[in-house]
């Protein structure tokens, strides 16, 4: 790579990249296998003045990490490559004025390893090594994210099934209550039917008795009527 070609590399915002890492890596940068390089800010965007925040045990001023942070503050770097894996990432940065490469590995907003070299081949190899390390480091986080999602999904299914079970139990209880009520009504109806049948039989017997009595009285009345219609002479002759 010539100095002219390097100087034509578009400058990008490494600090903006780092400040958005915490949210962007979790939402967009998780890779299931391997590592895919993707820019986080548009090419040609200026480097932000705000460097990524460091923990309380920030490196001393005389360190490669501090030197990299100072260059970021001064917008003295070009970002060539950046790869995210979960909360971890690796970047390959280039200072065109003296042909120096910086290879950095970070976790969320914090640099924890930076290598400075003038060898392009070494820088590319280090970058690939760092990317491979971020893949391994991110595996635990990625697995945790997936397990947490599966747990939440399982808990949701448990809730749905518990609700379904409760509904089925309530349906069964209502069905059993209805069956008991139906059985009670059936018993009552059978008892009433038996009582009505007995009443009907008694009524029929009473009717038969009354009808016999009526027929007997009618026969007696007919005989009396027949005697009353005979002539007096006939009666006298019969008396002789």
Would you give an account of this structure?
The chain is α+β, with helices and mostly antiparallel strands and 240 residues long. It contains six helices and four strands. A four-stranded antiparallel β-sheet has the order 1-2-3-4, sandwiched between helices. A hairpin with a 2-residue loop joins strand 1 and strand 2. The longest helix is centred in the last third of the chain and has 109 residues. The chain is rod-shaped, with a radius of gyration of 53 Å. 20% of the residues are buried. The N terminus is likely disordered.
Describe the structure using short key phrases.
240 residues; alpha+beta; four-stranded antiparallel sheet; disordered N terminus
């Amino acid at each position: 790579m010539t100095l002219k070609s390097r100087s034509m590399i578009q400058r990008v915002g490494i600090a903006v990249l780092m400040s958005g890492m915490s949210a962007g890596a979790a939402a967009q940068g998780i890779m299931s296998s391997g590592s895919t390089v993707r820019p986080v800010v548009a090419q040609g965007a200026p480097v932000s003045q705000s460097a990524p925040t460091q923990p309380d045990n920030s490196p001393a001023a005389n360190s490669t990490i501090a030197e990299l942070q100072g260059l970021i503050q001064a917008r003295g770097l070009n970002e060539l490559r950046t790869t995210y894996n979960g909360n971890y990432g690796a970047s390959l940065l280039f200072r065109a004025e003296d042909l120096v490469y910086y290879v950095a590995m970070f976790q969320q907003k914090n640099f924890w390893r930076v290598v400075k070299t003038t060898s392009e081949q070494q820088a590319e190899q280090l970058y690939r090594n760092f990317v491979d390390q971020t893949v391994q480091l991110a595996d635990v986080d990625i697995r945790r994210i997936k397990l947490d999602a599966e747990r939440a999904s399982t808990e949701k299914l448990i809730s749905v099934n518990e609700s379904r079970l409760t509904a089925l139990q309530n349906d069964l209880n209502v069905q059993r209550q209805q069956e008991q009520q139906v059985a009670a009504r059936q018993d009552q109806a059978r008892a009433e039917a038996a009582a009505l049948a007995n009443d009907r039989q008694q009524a029929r017997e009473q009717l038969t008795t009354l009808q016999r009595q009526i027929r007997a009285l009618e026969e007696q009345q007919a005989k009396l009527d027949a005697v009353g219609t005979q002539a007096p002479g006939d009666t006298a002759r019969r008396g002789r």
